[in-house]
Design goal:
binds pyridoxal-5'-phosphate; 2 domains; alpha/beta; 3-stranded antiparallel sheet; Aspartate Aminotransferase, domain 1
């Protein structure tokens, strides 16, 4: 029987991860044809020349011979002690290295936590826009992702009352991503406290993705939700990929805190799943202690004159000069999420725009609708290129916007 496909899991039918999807494949094909494509789709600092602080790699090299065996499923002891110390210092209650897990990136731990938690049909409150792994992992583990809006007109900061209206008897957990990918929003402390109080009131597990905790601009301050979550179960996620520019080391962690007496079963479920994958990559774990106890290398990047700050400024200036774009100024993380306000779907479609931008101007970015939003007039761009390249990229974006919105009859014809 010719071309009869092997059936695949139906669990995947609604699962999407377009950051590395068809547009990305098209960009690679253009590169293979000899085009220079500016790929601004992935938050991978190394591919834009950022370096991991040297003392992290030095420690891995020094400990390589100690890395030849499996370690405990939770991870090496010393790093877990330091991670737990950091969580305690941030005000998390009932933290213990025995309830701290190291994984192959936060990605692995997101899946592991949701797998441990969810039964078929359980609902999880996920931000919209989200980092799409969260929605995908909820679906893959039999849950239902109920998206709560983080509205551009509210600075992409969620409203606890709007979230509360979505809670049902099947709601199990509230996901927060703060500082946020893709919007760059950083939630004010009183809002974080209100979100935690909501979780306490409804006995929801707080799942707090804080992987961008050290990447803050201007006067933004990071407020850990665990500080306010002592009366519910809280799982806080952090890692080396972003703040320490070490995506390739694949190192993330997850700290349980709060009302841990209610979480014995959850803890055992996590332990079982962690044991089934034996352990996380061992060499990378040696970088954790020098990262968390060594000098701060991120603030210089996000302060005036710093590489990320200046690129962010190039985006802000580019949007200001644009006839069509609008932006909630990112206060943290590595992205901006500009929009085209007032454009109707017939005038502007984020996917069509992203494809035109790629084909006509050789810039790859991610359409906003890849982040589980109901509207199609936003896109995500990473702040990782240098400022000069970002200025150039903003000009290319504007050219396509002008063609799309002001001369739609020409827009399709440009090769
Ligand atoms: N969470 C968020 C919000 C992210 O943006 C990312 C990566 O971009 C991850 C988790 C995954 O990070 P890791 O490299 O630790 O798997």
């Amino acid at each position: 029987m010719p071309n009869r496909q092997i059936p695949v899991s139906s669990r995947l039918s609604d699962v999407r991860y377009e950051i590395r999807g068809e547009l990305f494949e098209r960009a690679l094909a253009l590169e293979a044809q000899g085009h220079v494509v500016h790929k601004l789709n992935i938050g991978n600092p190394a591919s834009f020349g950022f370096k991991t602080p040297a003392h992290l790699g030095a420690e891995i090299r020094a400990r390589l011979e100690d890395s030849e065996g499996y370690c405990h499923q939770r991870g090496l002891t010393e790093p877990r002690v330091v991670i737990a110390d950091q969580a305690r210092a941030r005000g998390a209650a009932n933290v213990d290295p025995e309830r701290t897990w190291i994984g192959n990136g936060v990605s692995e731990l997101i899946d592991l936590a949701l797998r441990a938690l969810l039964n078929h049909g359980d609902e999880v409150l996920v931000p919209s826009p989200d980092y799409p792994l969260w929605t995908a992992s909820v679906l893959l583990n039999g849950g239902i992702a109920v998206h709560y809006p983080c509205r551009p007109e509210a600075g992409f900061v969620p409203d606890p009352a709007e979230i509360e209206a979505l809670i049902t008897p099947r709601t199990r957990a509230l996901v927060l991503i703060n500082p946020n990918n893709p919007t760059g929003a950083v939630y004010p402390p009183e809002r974080v406290a209100a979100l935690a109080a909501l979780a306490v009131r409804h006995r929801l597990v707080l799942l707090s993705d804080e992987i961008y905790d050290g990447l803050l601009y201007d006067k933004a301050g990071f407020e850990p939700v665990a500080r306010h979550g002592s009366e519910t179960v809280c799982l806080s996620f952090g890692g080396l990929s972003k703040v320490y520019r070490a995506c390739g080391y694949r190192v993330g962690w997850m700290v349980m805190s709060g009302d841990v007496r209610r979480a014995n079963d959850l803890r055992h479920a996590i332990e079982l799943l962690a044991a089934l994958r034996l352990c996380s990559n061992v060499p990378g774990q040696w970088a954790i202690v020098p990262a968390l106890t060594g000098p701060d290398s991120a603030s210089a990047l996000t302060a005036p004159g710093g590489r990320l700050f200046e690129t962010r400024r190039a985006v802000i200036d580019g949007v200001r000069a644009s006839r069509h774009l609008d932006l909630v100024t990112p206060a943290g993380a590595l992205y901006a999420f500009p929009g085209v306000p007032g454009a109707t779907p017939a005038q502007f479609d984020d996917r069509r725009f992203a494809l035109d931008l790629l084909e006509q101007e050789q810039v790859l970015l991610v359409p906003g609708s890849s982040f589980n939003v109901p509207y199609r007039n936003h896109f995500r761009i990473t702040l990782l290129p240098d400022a000069a390249l970002m200025r150039d990229v903003l000009e290319r974006i504007e050219r396509v916007l002008v063609r799309t919105l002001e001369r739609p009859e020409d827009a399709r014809q440009v090769a």
